[in-house]
Amino acid sequence: MDKMIFTMLNSMKNVQHKQTNNAHEIANVITPGFKKSFSEQTKSLDVHVDGALNSRAMPISKATNIVDMNPGALMISGRALDIYVNDAGALVVQGPEGQELYTRRGDLSVSANGMLVTGTGHLVIGDDGPITVPQGTNISIANDGRVNMIPPGSHLEVQVGRIKLVNTADQDMLIREDGLYQLEKGDLPLDGEIRITPKALEGSNVNAVDAMVRMIQLSRQYEMAVNMIKNAREVDAASASTMRLS
């Protein structure tokens, strides 16, 4: 009887983990460039004590956190510093330790100290490091990542930097706690073939309807596990009563 109880308890724990991730996806369904990043691998763990006749086997699930790089919807915003990275490309940003990390979030802006940053405040990396945007007007981004502007007192457009773009195709991108992506080892090289769509944003690739259906399914799975434990308790009580009568 305890085999079934332990199996159901482990199932409930796994369902709770999935519910947490699903709730995270639902909360970010309107976050620009958000990617689903939960995949699960399950294996059997055998527990055996030498000299004992009974053994236990229970499923163990492990999340891989590999990012689903399928693109979200292209949304035209008309804002000069909004960009949509085409195909499997990604922006390069500076991590908290100065390392290169990656994102698909394209709601860029110029910080108070003149640095080009993402919507989460991470520095955007160019060919020569973080991109500084001097004071000027008509700041724009070309489809090859060039950042242009018109300096004060001039009517000619000048280039102040170029966003570093990389290709994530056929790469396992892992998500970090801060929402940025990284490779398990090493960095991705600059890819001059990656293009962007200016004045547009990428929507989340989370399907709200699918996420809501998954939430209902997980709730039912949890309820079934609870009912199985209740049934096991009733069967155990009935067996004990039968033993006392005999």
Which terms summarize this structure?
246 residues; alpha+beta; 2 domains; three-stranded antiparallel beta sheet; 2 helices; 18 strands; elongated
Describe the structure.
With 246 residues, the chain is α+β, with helices and mostly antiparallel strands. Helix content is 26%, strand content 28%. It has helices at residues 2-27, 208-245, and strands at 40-48, 55-63, 74-76, 83-85, 89-94, 100-103, 109-110, 116-117, 125-126, 129-130, 137-141, 146-150, 158-162, 165-167, 174-175, 181-182, 196-198, 200-202. The chain folds into two domains: 2-13 and 22-68 and 207-245, no CATH class; 74-170 and 179-202, no CATH class. The protein is built from two helices and 18 strands. A hairpin with a 6-residue loop joins strand 1 and strand 2 (55-63).
Q: Which outline best applies?
A: elongated
Name the average pLDDT: 83
Q: State the strand order across the main sheet.
A: 6-5-14
Q: What is the count of distinct domains?
A: 2
Strand % is 25-35%
Counting DSSP H or I runs of 4 or more residues, the number of helices is 2
User: Structural class, from helix and strand content?
Assistant: alpha+beta
Biggest sheet architecture:
3 strands, antiparallel
SSE ordering:
HEEEEEEEEEEEEEEEEEEH
**What is the gyration radius calculated from CA atoms?**
26 Å
Count the E strands. 18
Low-pLDDT stretches? none
The proportion of residues forming helix, as a percent range, comes to 25-40%
- The separation of the N and C termini measures 20 Å
